[in-house]
Automatic annotation (TrEMBL), chain A:
Belongs to the phosphatase 2A regulatory subunit A family. The lineage of its organism: Eukaryota, Metazoa, Chordata, Craniata, Vertebrata. HEAT repeats lie at residues 23-61, 100-138, 177-215, 216-254, 255-293, 294-331, 337-375, 376-414, 415-453, 532-570. Residues 287-368 form the Phosphatase PP2A regulatory subunit A/Splicing factor 3B subunit 1-like HEAT repeat domain. This is Protein phosphatase 2, regulatory subunit A, beta a.
TrEMBL record, chain B:
Keywords: Repeat, WD repeat. SMART domains: WD40. Residues 381-404 are annotated as: Disordered. It comes from the Eukaryota. Transmembrane segments: none annotated. Belongs to the phosphatase 2A regulatory subunit B family. GO terms for molecular function: protein phosphatase regulator activity. PP2A consists of a common heterodimeric core enzyme, composed of a 36 kDa catalytic subunit (subunit C) and a 65 kDa constant regulatory subunit (PR65 or subunit A), that associates with a variety of regulatory subunits. Coiled coil: none annotated. It comes from Neogobius melanostomus. This is Serine/threonine-protein phosphatase 2A 55 kDa regulatory subunit B. The lineage of its organism: Eukaryota, Metazoa, Chordata, Craniata, Vertebrata. One of its GO terms (cellular component) is protein phosphatase type 2A complex.
C-alpha cells in the first residue's frame, strides 16, 4: 500500500528513536482512511494494533470504537467480524472474553447476511471460551437481547446461537432458551421463521431426547406446515437431523406424517427439496421405512409434474438404488424404479434427461450383467441418440461404469455415430467436451477400434476453425500417445502431423508446431530428433513471422528431449539465424530460446 | 360535505406543497412515482431526472398537533443517470419508473428504485457520531512530526449533527430487454419481481447476477404480438401468488407453487365486453395501467383509462365494484387519441383499511371513492387552495348542456395537468398527490 512505502522513506529519514510505534500509528489512522482497501488492510491487522495497545487499552478504547463503527463497507465489516472471533487473548484471555460481545452484537444486526453470519460464527466460537458463569452472566443475556430485538436481522442472528450455549447452562436457563427458540419459530417475519427452521436440526442435536420429542417435534410439524413455502422447504432439511436423533420406533409417528406431507406438498419447491435431500432422508429413516414409504414417494417424484423436481429426483436415481436394502434391492429397482426411469429417458424436458444421463450408467453395477444387457442397454442406446448433445455427452462421459459390467463393445455400434455427431456439432463447446472424453474412450475401445473409427476425427480437429478446439486436439494427441505408446504414434499420427507443415494455411502449419511441442516428450528422443526436428528446422524459413517465432519457441520446448550435440550442431545455428531476423518478435523469441535453451550446454 | 374514507365524517384539507412554483417546469423535475413506506414515516418520490427525494414525517408535539400531515426532506440522492446502450444504439432514460420500500430490517431503511432497465437497492441510514483524533496529524489536519510519536491514540467517537446517507447496495441489471413497468417486493422478504412489457423476472434481494424468468409472453414471431404486460404485483401475504395485468384489460393470477415457470395462470380475470359500447378506442381504453392488491389480500384493484375496478380474488368473471373516474371523457376520446393523452398511465391506491380508493384525472383533479357508502368526490391539487389547513372544495365537471355555477366544463379541462401518481398513508388519512413537479400533501380535518 502507498502508505507503507511512505513509511519506509520516513523511516530512512529518522536517525534514532522508538520506531515501533510509527507503523501502528499508521494502521490506527488508516482505520478511518477514505480508501476502503486501506481500511480493510488495517482491520486485517487489528491484532497488531491490539497487541501494541495492550489488553487494557484494547478493552477500554479500541473495542468501544469498533462497536460503533458499523457504518463501513461490507467487506470491512466482514473482516472485522472475523477478526473478533480470534481476539480472546488480545483482550486478556477467557476472563475478559465477554468484552468482545458488544461489537459482535452490533455486527449481528447489520443487514448484510454475510456479515451477520460471520458475526454469529465468531460469537459461536468465543462462546466456547466463556466460563459457565460468564456464559450465563454475559452471553446468554446477549442471545436474549438479539432474540427479542425489534428488527428481524437481530432475531435471525439469535437463531444460530441457541445451540452453542444450551449444553453449558443451568436447567432454568435451558428452559428459557427453549422458550425463546419456540417464540422465534412462530415469529411474524418469514425471515426469522426461516432462520429458525434452518437451525432446528442443529438445536435438536443438543437437546435432551425428551425435549426433542416434546418440543422439537411440534415446532418441526408447525414449520413444515407454515403458510410460506420458503419456510416449509427448510423443514425438509431439519427432517434429516431429527430422524437421525430419534429411535426407530418413534419415526413412524413423529416424523413420517410430516415427511409424507412434504413429498406431496402443493409447492414444487418443497417437493424439489425432498428430491434433493432424498439420499440423506433415506439413510436417516432406515431400510424398513425406505421400502414402505420412500420407494413410492420416489416414484412419485420421478413422475412429478414439475420438470425441476423430476430432474432433482433423476439425479438421485443411482444413489437411491445403491442405498436400498440389499436383500430385495434388485426386485425393488426392477419393479418400481426402472419403469419410471424408462419414462424419463423420453422426458419432454432436456434438463431431466441430462440429469438422468449423468447417473443412469451407474445402475449397471448394481443390476449386474444380464439385467444391464436386457433392460439398461436399450436405454443407453436411446440416450446416445438423444437430440440434446448434453444427454449424449453425459452418457459418453460415464462409459467406464458400464465397461466394467458388460464391456464397451456392446455399445460400440451406437457409440460411434453418437461420437461422430458430437464431434461435428455446430457448437464448439460441444466439440470441446467430446474431445476431452477421447482419451478415456480410446482406452476403453482399444487401439484397433480407435484406428479404424476415431483416428480421422482426432486429426480433423487439428484443423478446426476454432483455436480452442485445435488446442484441445493437440493435447488430446499427447494423451493418446501416453495410452498407445510411441510406436503407435510414429506410425499413425506423427506422419499426419508433420504433413501439415506444408499446408498453405499458416494456422495449420503452426498447429504442426503446437503438436510437436505437446508430443516430443511422450514420443521420446529418437522420434523427436529424427522425424520432428528436421521439420521444425525447415520451418524456420517460413514466410510468416508467426510461424518463425513459434519455431523458436518450439526449439526451446523440445530442447530438453534432444542430445547436446544435436542442440549444438543443428538447433543453435538456426536460432542464431532467427536471432538476426528482421521481425522483432522472432528475434525476441530466438534470444529467449538461446538464453534458456543453450545455457545448460554452455555450462556443461 | 363529507370526505371519503372509513365512514368518518371529515374534510380533506391542505397540508403542504413541495416543489418550485415556477410556471415553466423543467422536464427533469416532473415527479414520476410516489410511495409511502410501511409505517408511513417516510415518503419517497422519484422524478424524470433520476432523483429520489425522501420526506420524513415531522414529529408531532402537544403544542403543534396539526403537524400530523407534515413531511420534510430527509434525504435526496441521484438514483439513476442517463445511459447509452451502444450495442443497441438506444438511450436509456434516467426516469424513475417505480419505487418500492422494503420492510424495515434494522435502523436503516431500504428501497428499490428502477428506471427502464436497471433496478437498484438503496440504503438510507443515519449517522450521528464522528471519529476524532489521528496519530499522524493534529486537530487542524497538520501533519505531525513522525519523529515525535511517543504514544498511540485510538480514535474517539464524538456526537455530530445528524447526517443522512443514501448508499447503493445492489444493482440488478441486464435482465430486461424491454422497459420495466413494475417492481414488487414479495411477502417472503427475500425475493421481488420485476416486470417489463413481455416478461416477468423473479430476483433474490441478495443476488444480483441471476434472476429467474417466471413469465414470458413474447411470441416466437413478434408480428404475432397482440398484448403486453402493463403492471405486476406480489400478493401482500401469500408469497407464492402474484398477478399481472395486460393491455387487453385482463389480469392473470399465477401460483408459483405450481411450477417453476408461470406461463400458465391459475386465475384469469376478465369482464366480458359490452358489445353496445364497442368502438375504435375500446381496446386502448380497456388497457390496464395499474393493479394493486388490497392490504387484506382479498381484493385487487385495476385502473383502466376511464374507470377503476375492484375484483374479489374469488370471482374471475367480473369485478365486484366499478367506479367511473371521468366518464365525461368518453365523448372526447378522439381528441385524446390525437394528443396521446389516451395512453396516459394512471395509477391507483387503497387507503389503509381498504375502505376507500384514490386515483387521478386531468386538470389536476383526483378522485376518491368510498367503498361502503359508494360516495365519490373530486378534489383538486392547486396552488390557489394551498393555504395551511384550507379545506379542499369538491369540484364538479358539467356534463350536460347547462353549466352550474361552480362547475367546470369538459372543454375547459387542462389535459396537460394530469395526476398520474398518488399515495395513501398506510394508517392515517394523509395522502400524497403528484401534480407535475409538485407534491401535494393533504390530510383529514375532523369536524
Amino acid at each position: 500500500s502507498p502508505s507503507w512505502s511512505g513509511l519506509n522513506t520516513n523511516r530512512k529519514m529518522r536517525a534514532d528513536g522508538d520506531d515501533s510505534l510509527y507503523p501502528i500509528a499508521v494502521l490506527i489512522d488508516e482505520l478511518r482512511n477514505e480508501d476502503v482497501q486501506l481500511r480493510l488492510n488495517s482491520i486485517k491487522k487489528l491484532s497488531t494494533i491490539a497487541l501494541a495497545l495492550g489488553v487494557e487499552r484494547t478493552r477500554t478504547e479500541l473495542l468501544p470504537f469498533l462497536t460503533d463503527t458499523i457504518y463501513d463497507e461490507d467487506e470491512v465489516l466482514l473482516a472485522l467480524a472475523e477478526q473478533l472471533g480470534n481476539f480472546t487473548m488480545l483482550v486478556g484471555g477467557p476472563e475478559y472474553v465477554h468484552c468482545l460481545l458488544p461489537p459482535l452484537e452490533s455486527l449481528a444486526t447489520v443487514e448484510e447476511t454475510v456479515v451477520r453470519d460471520k458475526a454469529v460464527e465468531s460469537l459461536r466460537k468465543i462462546s466456547q471460551e466463556h466460563s459457565p458463569v460468564d456464559l450465563e452472566v454475559h452471553f446468554e443475556p446477549l442471545v436474549k437481547r438479539l432474540a427479542s430485538g425489534d428488527w428481524f436481522t437481530s432475531r435471525t442472528s439469535a437463531c444460530g446461537l441457541f445451540s452453542v450455549c444450551y449444553p453449558r447452562v443451568s436447567s432454568t436457563v435451558k428452559a428459557e432458551i427453549r422458550q425463546h427458540f419456540r417464540t422465534l419459530c412462530s415469529d411474524d417475519t418469514p425471515m426469522v421463521r426461516r432462520a429458525a427452521a434452518s437451525k432446528l436440526g442443529e438445536f435438536a442435536k443438543v437437546l435432551e431426547l425428551d425435549y426433542v420429542k416434546s418440543d422439537i417435534i411440534s415446532l418441526f410439524t408447525a414449520l413444515a406446515s407454515d403458510e410460506q413455502d420458503s419456510v416449509r422447504l427448510l423443514a425438509v432439511e431439519a427432517c434429516v437431523s431429527i430422524a437421525t436423533l430419534l429411535p426407530q420406533e418413534d419415526l413412524e409417528t413423529l416424523v413420517m406424517p410430516t415427511l409424507r406431507q412434504a413429498a406431496e406438498d402443493k409447492s414444487w419447491r418443497v417437493r424439489y427439496m425432498v428430491a434433493d435431500k432424498f439420499s440423506e432422508l433415506q439413510k436417516a429413516v432406515g431400510p424398513e421405512i425406505t421400502k414402505n414409504d420412500l420407494v413410492p414417494a420416489f416414484q412419485n417424484l420421478l413422475k412429478d409434474c414439475e420438470a425441476e423436481v423430476r430432474a432433482a429426483a433423476a439425479n438421485k436415481v443411482k444413489e437411491f438404488c445403491e442405498n436400498l436394502p440389499e436383500d430385495n434391492r434388485e426386485q425393488i429397482i426392477m419393479t418400481h424404479i426402472l419403469p419410471c426411469v424408462k419414462e424419463l429417458v423420453s422426458d419432454t424436458n432436456q434438463h431431466v434427461k441430462s440429469a438422468l444421463a449423468s447417473v443412469i450408467m451407474g445402475l449397471s453395477t448394481i443390476l449386474g450383467k444380464d439385467n444391464t444387457i436386457e433392460h439398461l442397454l436399450p436405454l443407453f442406446l436411446a440416450q446416445l441418440k438423444d437430440e440434446c448433445p448434453e444427454v449424449r455427452l453425459n452418457i459418453i462421459s460415464n462409459l467406464d461404469c458400464v465397461n466394467e459390467v458388460i464391456g464397451i463393445r456392446q455399445l460400440s455400434q451406437s457409440l460411434l455415430p453418437a461420437i461422430v455427431e458430437l464431434a461435428e456439432d455446430a457448437k464448439w463447446r460441444v466439440r470441446l467436451a467430446i474431445i476431452e472424453y477421447m482419451p478415456l474412450l480410446a482406452g476403453q475401445l482399444g487401439v484397433e477400434f480407435f484406428d479404424e473409427k476415431l483416428n480421422t476425427l482426432c486429426m480433423a480437429w487439428l484443423i478446426d476453425h476454432v483455436y480452442a478446439i485445435r488446442e484441445a486436439a493437440t493435447c488430446n494427441l499427447m494423451k493418446l500417445v501416453e495410452k498407445f505408446g510411441a510406436d503407435w504414434a510414429q506410425n499413425t499420427i506423427v506422419p499426419k502431423v508433420l504433413g501439415m507443415a506444408n499446408d498453405p494455411n499458416y494456422l495449420h502449419r503452426m498447429t504442426t508446431l503446437f503438436c510437436i511441442n505437446a508430443l516430443s516428450d511422450v514420443c521420446g528422443r529418437d522420434i523427436t530428433t529424427k522425424q520432428m526436428l528436421p521439420v521444425v528446422l525447415k520451418m524456420s524459413e517460413d514466410q510468416v513471422a508467426n510461424v518463425r517465432f513459434n519455431v523458436a519457441k518450439s526449439l526451446q520446448k523440445i530442447g530438453p528431449v534432444l542430445e547436446k550435440i544435436t542442440l549444438q550442431n543443428q538447433v543453435k545455428p538456426v536460432l542464431d539465424k532467427l536471432a538476426t531476423d528482421k521481425d522483432m518478435d522472432v528475434k525476441y523469441f530466438a534470444h529467449e530460446a538461446l538464453s534458456g535453451e543453450c545455457l545448460p550446454y554452455e555450462y556443461s | 360535505m363529507a370526505g371519503v374514507a372509513s365512514g368518518n365524517d371529515f374534510q380533506w384539507c391542505f397540508s403542504q406543497v413541495k416543489g418550485a412554483i415556477d410556471e415553466d417546469v423543467a422536464e427533469a423535475d416532473i415527479i414520476s412515482t410516489v410511495e409511502f413506506n410501511y409505517s408511513g414515516e417516510l415518503l419517497a418520490t422519484g422524478d424524470k431526472g433520476g432523483r429520489v427525494v425522501i420526506f420524513q414525517h415531522e414529529q408531532e408535539s402537544k403544542n403543534r398537533p396539526h403537524l400530523r400531515g407534515e413531511y420534510n426532506v430527509y434525504s435526496t440522492f441521484q438514483s439513476h443517470e442517463p445511459e447509452f446502450d451502444y450495442l443497441k444504439s438506444l438511450e436509456i432514460e434516467e426516469k424513475i419508473n417505480k419505487i418500492r420500500w422494503l420492510q424495515q430490517q434494522n435502523a436503516a431503511h431500504f428501497l428499490l428504485s428502477t428506471n427502464d432497465k436497471t433496478i437498484k437497492l438503496w440504503k438510507i441510514s443515519e449517522r450521528d457520531k464522528r471519529a476524532e483524533g489521528y496519530n499522524l496529524k493534529d486537530e487542524d489536519g497538520r501533519l505531525r512530526d513522525p519523529f515525535r510519536i511517543t504514544s498511540l491514540r485510538v480514535p474517539v467517537l464524538m456526537p455530530m449533527d445528524l447526517m443522512v446517507e443514501a448508499s447503493p447496495r445492489r444493482i440488478f441489471a441486464n435482465a430486461h430487454t424491454y422497459h420495466i413497468n413494475s417492481i414488487s417486493v414479495n411477502s417472503d422478504h427475500e425475493t421481488y419481481l420485476s416486470a417489463d412489457d413481455l416478461r416477468i423476472n423473479l430476483w433474490h434481494l441478495e443476488i444480483t447476477d441471476r434472476s429467474f424468468n417466471i413469465v414470458d409472453i413474447k411470441p416466437a414471431n413478434m408480428e404475432e404480438l397482440t398484448e403486453v404486460i402493463t403492471a405486476a404485483e406480489c400478493h401482500p401475504h401469500q408469497c407464492n401468488v402474484f398477478v399481472y395485468s395486460s393491455s387487453k384489460g385482463t389480469i392473470r393470477l399465477c401460483d408459483m407453487r405450481a411450477g417453476a415457470l408461470c406461463d400458465r395462470h391459475s386465475k384469469f380475470f376478465e369482464e366480458p365486453e359490452d358489445p353496445s359500447s364497442r368502438s375504435f378506442f375500446s381496446e386502448i381504453i380497456s388497457s390496464i395501467s395499474d393493479v394493486k392488491f388490497s392490504h387484506s389480500g382479498r381484493y385487487m384493484m385495476t385502473r383502466d383509462y376511464l374507470s377503476v375496478k375492484v375484483w374479489d380474488l374469488n370471482m374471475e368473471n367480473r369485478p365486484v365494484e366499478t367506479y367511473q373516474v371521468h366518464e365525461y371523457l368518453r365523448s372526447k376520446l378522439c381528441s385524446l387519441y390525437e394528443n396521446d393523452c389516451i395512453f396516459d398511465k394512471f395509477e391507483c391506491c387503497w387507503n389503509g383499511s381498504d375502505s376507500a380508493i384514490m386515483t387521478g384525472s386531468y386538470n389536476n383533479f383526483f378522485r376518491m371513492f368510498d367503498r361502503n357508502t359508494r360516495r365519490d368526490i373530486t378534489l383538486e391539487a392547486s396552488r390557489e387552495s394551498s393555504k395551511p389547513r384550507a379545506t379542499l372544495k369538491p369540484r364538479k365537471v358539467s356534463t350536460g348542456g347547462k353549466r352550474k355555477k361552480d362547475e367546470i366544463s369538459v372543454d375547459s379541462l387542462d389535459f396537460n395537468k394530469k395526476i398520474l401518481h398518488t399515495a395513501w398513508h398506510p394508517k392515517d388519512n394523509v395522502i400524497a398527490v403528484a401534480a407535475t413537479n409538485n407534491l401535494y400533501i393533504f390530510q383529514d380535518k375532523i369536524n
